[in-house]
Amino acid sequence: MTGTGTFQHNVDDKGRLFIPAKLREELGDVFFVFTFLDRCLWVYSQESWDKMREKLAGMPSSRSRKMKRIIYPTSQKCEPDNQGRVLISKDLRDYAEIEKESVIIGAGDHVEIWSKQRWDQRQVVSEDDLEQIADELGL
Q1: Three-state DSSP class for 2?
Q2: What is the pLDDT of residue 2?
Q3: Residue 112 backbone class (left: φ over 0; alpha: ψ -120 to 50; beta: rest)
Q4: Phi, psi at residue 97, to the nearest 5°?
Q5: What is the pLDDT of residue 34?
Q6: At 87, which helix (H) or strand (E)?
Q7: Which tens digits make up the pLDDT trace of 90-119?
Q8: How many other C-beta atoms lie within 10 A of the C-beta of residue 81?
């Protein structure tokens, strides 16, 4: 998964969201949407989902329990329809505060779905922090 790009799409009255073709190609025919960090929705391909499940299963129970309780109850298996739309449950939309407008971003190893309002108001990395991160990456 090498998700990149930023896309804006509206959720329709039935709760369906169009997933851009570029990202659908990378995510595959089946992918998983769940809540995690930053009050946005995380989207994993089947392959990435399976890898995460294996990692969780391999962790000591005392460490994995909390993550399992966050990820699995909120996860939703998605299969796009012929028009590239997926139904996003009301619970997931409520968590991410997505009413109509959304921003879908490629985030490297996954995709994120944000409400447009939250995306526009997100905390941007300061110039100093960005320089430090760039140094760590050798850029």
Answers
A1: coil
A2: 65
A3: beta
A4: 60, 40
A5: 95
A6: strand 85-87
A7: 999 999 999 999 999 999 889 999 999 999
A8: 10
| Residue 113 contacts residue 39 (beta carbons within 8 Å) | no
Please tell me whether residue 84 adopts helix, strand or coil conformation.
coil
Q: What is the mean pLDDT of residues 26-52?
A: 94
Give the integer Cα–Cα distance in Å for 57 and 70: 15
Q: What is the mean pLDDT of the chain?
A: 91
CB atoms within 10 A of CB 124: 7
Q: DSSP letters of 17-81?
A: EEPPHHHHHHH-S-EEEEE-STTSEEEEEHHHHHHHHHHHHHS-HHHHHHHHHHHHHH-EEE---
Q: Residue 115: which region, alpha, beta or left (left: phi > 0; alpha: psi -120 to 50)?
A: beta
- pLDDT(20) > 80: yes
